[in-house]
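Training component of the fellowship. As part of building independent skills, the fellow (R.M.) carried out the full modelling exercise for a liganded target. The chosen ligand was zinc ion. The inputs are recorded below so that the supervisory panel can assess the work.
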Amino acid sequence: MKVLRVALDVPVAKLFDYLIDDASPAASGDRVVVPFGARQRVGVVVEISDASSVAVSRLKSVVRVLDDAPRLSASWLEQIRFLSSYYQRPFGETVAGALPARLRSLKPLPKRRKSAAGGTSDAAPHFAAVHDPNPAQAGAIERIGAALGSFRPYLLHGITGSGKTEVYLRLIAQVLSKGMQALVLVPEIGLTPQLEARFRQAFPDTRIAVLHSALEESARTHAWLDAARGEAPVILGTRLAVLTPLPRLGIVVVDEEHDASFKQQEGLRYSGRDAAVLRAKLAGCPVVLGTATPSLETWFNCRAGRYELISLPERAVPGARLPTVRTVDLRIESAEHGLAKPVLDAIRTRLARGEQSLVFINRRGYAPVLSCESCGWAAGCTRCSARLVLHATDRKLRCHHCGALEPVPRECPSCGNVDLRPLGRGTQRIEETLAALHPEARILRIDRDSTRKRDELARTLEGVGRGEGDILVGTQLLAKGHDFPNLSLVCVLNADSALLSTDYRSAERLFATLAQVGGRSGRREQPGEVLVQTRYPGHPMFQALIRHDYAGFAESQLAERESAGFPPYVHEAALRAEATRLEAAMAFLRAAARLLDVPDSVQIYDPVPHVITRRAGVERAQLILQSASRPALQDFLRLWSAALPASTSSGVRWHLDVDPIEFD
Ligand SMILES: [Zn+2]
Ligand SMILES: [Zn+2]
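Fellow's submitted model of the complex:
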């Protein structure tokens, strides 16, 4: 008999030993059905041994070995092992989380599909070139193409409209011609249809596996199996696609690498971007991180020589230039109804010329506050420490943190005043104002309320690209990756609120958002214009934006981070606690901070309540750990997470977040 060491989906760090016949061909990476408690479960074999620390008489036997899906490779298991250890989650749970649910269930896998969309890998890949690359694109393709077959991380820093996708496509064509696979990660599900269409156009006979969290379970299982069997040469997906086994991986692309949605915010809190670099390293292939506004971490890695920088400094369409960016000084220009006169004039000019305008306000709903002027009452959520947002389309108050829905009160619940006033503006109110000013214009509002379904957003954006809509009013859903040829004006309304945030990442994010949203304009011959309403026109962030100077902005941010002792100059982790009483969460964190001797190289800060302390009826607090040494922080976290009491035992739920990026 041999001993199989099996990873099971349980919230403990250990592996479980089972017996199997010596003659069985079972090996590491096989899925097995094993008895566990009163039930049977599917686990993954991680190791084979001839001994166990448990007495052999007490070991149970494997029920059966599953061979309906490819055996998981050693390199895949190594990736999962690294992620589990780095992000401090049990190994079995991490393995299970990386597999589609169907592969963890006792039900047999669905029947194998006969070549579904596109051909199979034996068909010679056919690449349908659309554009000829310009010299910068050609240079990028040549440099990265020369590295195929070995691990090398690249930052492809291309301004908006510089044709990064064309570079990806041509590199992928080279990889496919060698019979290898390409993994392409995008931040948002909303971006996959547009990119998918470009890929299908470029590779008409190639099977493309699309993977994201909004897929039906059976579609996800099929796509996963196509990728794992090596039958899909191209895998396009959101962060979870990085966990797919790929037997012949030849290149990894992370598009819009700066995007915060690459970081998972529950369970295994991994960075899809960082996991992609690890994946490329294990596979021995290049990884391309593409963006117009790199994350400071990635920029820092370039400066340190760990990543190679390749720039695309010009727009791909001949004659297209970056838009002119100007600030509109709200201290001088009054903004009636939230729109200053220069902004209104610019929109009027575009309407007269038959060009599109985009009004960007990163706040959905009608007004962020409903308040009583006579007593100062404001509508708040009973379950969160947050205001309720007034929504005009259905006359409701909504909580944007827990989803609570309430009718608009007829009178002030505190003093009886019937004259309740909406304060501030969201997309719906700006849409209303613009509709009153320009009744003849076609106004399209694009936010999460107007486009609840994924394909609805894709359809609307496609329509905008064909010239539908004269004025677009929208949130950052509009900022990412889309190509709107007839758009020549972008107006940014509430940038200042992000500027005043206490989060040290807010300037970096604001710069990225504004550069991206501004980049939607002027992508053809007519020049684009970006107007930013602000009370701080002299702010260095706006000055850098006006000069299109990402590098200068990044240098000044890095200097600030270095002097303040923030990442990427130090490494961080957060311990977060949730309880029904804030004091219980705070007491847990205070006790946690005293639990072990903390080495000098690691600093633990005092626990603090979250800015939005209560969310959906739960009180939340956190403490931050910092260290200049990543290994020192990792060593301490390993000991610490083993010593902390189980979440279930104290009424306090806790988790660790390594390299956290959200603190609200
Ligand atoms: Zn009142
Ligand atoms: Zn709420």
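The panel noted the following from the submitted structure. The pocket of zinc ion (ligand 2) is lined by residues 381, 383-384, 386, 399, 401-402, 404 (CB under 6 Å). The chain is about 30% helix and 25% strand.
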